[in-house]
From TrEMBL:
Residues 1-46 are annotated as: Disordered. It holds the Pfam family WD40_RLD. Transmembrane segments: none annotated. Residues 13-34 have a biased composition (Basic and acidic residues). SUPFAM superfamilies: RCC1/BLIP-II. One of its GO terms (molecular function) is guanyl-nucleotide exchange factor activity. This is RCC1-like domain-containing protein. Keywords: Guanine-nucleotide releasing factor, Repeat. InterPro entries: Ran_GTPase-activating, RCC1-like_dom, RCC1/BLIP-II, Reg_chr_condens. RCC repeats lie at residues 61-113, 114-173, 174-229, 292-370, 432-490. It comes from Plectus sambesii. Residues 65-486 form the RCC1-like domain.
Length: 492
């Protein structure tokens, strides 16, 4: 085994490129051109594509956080299980929260002032609070530790996302930072300094000086970030194609990790496709292009990415010399294969005329349209899609997989947001109600299903109720395999 590499600084540095010398052109080869009339009002100029971080920031403020499920990550101290949403006590009186995120073994809560609260299993830095012990656990929400000069350099944290045992965030200035433990199929990834630095504390992954980012989304062990210029950057485990580019970690070099080695590009007709939104879940990533098309990449064994055979569009870029069409789209009809979409590929099963705003899940994907409609695609065992169509009879499973998006007609039409994890899903509405469905293994659906109940499969969306929700409304929620977390505001 190679000796450990030297710990990287919080912000990696890069060498300035040298300016190319001017080329001298022989006058004999220059033909005189007629003078062009000046443009009026900038007519004919292509408008520069630019996104605003304000469009992606959390829109709601709330004082209460509720959780359900099991484990230290529910944040109820010695109480390690609750089958219905229960309010977390002991939060700072001055804290106003804007976002919550459920990870595989931990929970995040973002306060308006930039503080990030966390609890759960501290697996190699997953929960870097002041009282956390190495490989221990924290059963109550507490602020994570940031470097003393963090806010002066990067601004406060304004957005968070959680993976299996790591977290990521976006700062006011557009940096992407991350902390915790990234794993691949072989276990913990410790192949370069940045991954080791994440286990010791908050680490800058993408400095704003090189890519000013407006959004970040986490899968199990990877992240995708959206730049204000419409570019996308991916980082972490790419063994299932979820990075959309060559994914050999040992080839990363710390001084180049924020340049082209992290950038994931799609080139069409010689131009770079610009993206307007990104999502991630499980072992996949999605990016919505400015023209409405959704590009997807990663694990597609159940057709959950909406990519059918022959659906590849564009070239593979960012150092990849393989054509996207060769490996990107595979036949989803063969269930014995572990099917991967290796490069960003048009999800032709997701209509481009629908303006998608949310996508979440693992082997199934739940999507929300901007008009409040909800759709599902992929694996439907245990009725994870909420359609109520799956059944097991005589050892045969019917309607266990859908390769085209299906609309959930048994939900209200004013759905504000969705979240999903392994075999289960949840949606909340404009008026603050929440519905969940799928396989309630440990109470993560929040429906009060107990261990003594024989039937833990919820076929269609069911309303979540709790005494702790009286006179309150849910403004945001996040679901993981073993728990769910809710951001809740008091009714005015």
């Amino acid at each position: 085994m190679a000796p450990p590499r030297k710990k990287a600084a919080l912000e990696p540095t890069a060498k300035e490129g040298e300016k190319e010398p001017e080329r001298k052109v022989s006058q004999s080869r220059v033909e005189k051109q007629p003078a062009k009339a000046p443009r009026k009002g900038g007519a004919g100029r292509a408008k520069k594509f630019k996104l605003s971080i304000d469009d992606f920031l959390p829109k709601h403020r709330a004082k209460f956080i509720l959780t359900c499920g099991e484990g230290d990550q529910i944040g109820h101290g010695e109480r390690l299980t609750t089958k219905k949403p229960r309010r977390i006590d002991g939060l700072p009186a001055d804290a106003v929260f804007t976002q919550v995120a459920a990870g595989g073994v931990h929970t995040l809560a973002l306060a308006e002032d930039g503080r990030v609260f966390s609890c759960g299993v501290n697996e190699k830095g997953t929960v870097p609070t002041e009282s956390a012990e190495a490989e221990g656990s924290v059963n109550e929400l507490a602020p994570i530790v940031l470097p003393e000069d963090f806010e002066a350099k990067y601004g406060k944290i304004v957005m968070v996302s959680a993976g299996a045992s790591f977290s990521a965030a976006v700062t006011e200035k557009g940096d992407v930072v991350a902390w915790g433990n990234l794993r691949d199929i072989n276990g913990t990834m410790e192949t370069h300094d940045m991954l080791m630095a994440m286990q010791k504390g908050v680490t800058v992954i993408v400095p704003h000086q090189m890519h000013r980012c407006v959004k970040v989304a986490c899968g199990e062990n990877h992240l995708i970030a959206l730049g204000e210029d419409g570019s996308i950057v991916t980082f972490g485990d790419g063994s299932q194609g979820q990075l959309g580019r060559l994914a050999v970690c040992r080839n990363h070099r710390i001084q180049y990790m924020v340049k082209q080695s992290l950038k994931c590009m799609v080139i069409e007709r010689g131009k770079e496709v610009k993206f307007a939104d990104v999502w991630a879940g499980g072992y996949w990533s999605m990016a919505r292009a400015s023209d409405g098309r959704v590009f997807a990449f990663g694990l597609n064994s159940y057709g959950q990415l909406g990519v059918s055979s022959g659906g590849a569009v564009g070239e593979a870029a960012a150092g990849n010399d393989a054509a996207a069409g060769d490996d990107a789209a595979m036949d989803v009809g063969d269930d014995t294969k572990e099917l991967r979409v290796q490069f960003p590929t048009v999800a032709d099963r997701l209509p481009a005329d629908i303006h998608w705003t949310h996508a979440a899940g693992q082997h199934h994907v739940i999507l929300r349209a901007d008009d409040g409609r909800v759709f599902g695609i992929g694996k439907n065992t245990d009725n994870a899609l909420g359609l109520g169509t799956w059944s097991r009879q005589d050892g045969r499973e019917e309607n266990w997989k859908y390769l085209d998006v299906q609309r959930l007609t048994n939900l209200p039409e004013d759905v504000r947001g969705i979240t999903a994890s392994l075999g289960c899903s949840l949606a909340w509405t404009q008026n603050g109600r929440a519905f969940s469905w799928g396989n309630d293994t440990v109470g993560q659906l929040g429906l009060g299903i107990t261990d003594d109940d024989d039937e833990k499969l919820v076929e269609t969306p069911r309303l979540i109720t709790s005494a702790h929700l009286d006179n309150c409304q849910i403004v945001q929620a996040s679901m993981a395999d073993n728990h769910s977390v809710f951001l809740v505001a008091a009714n005015e």
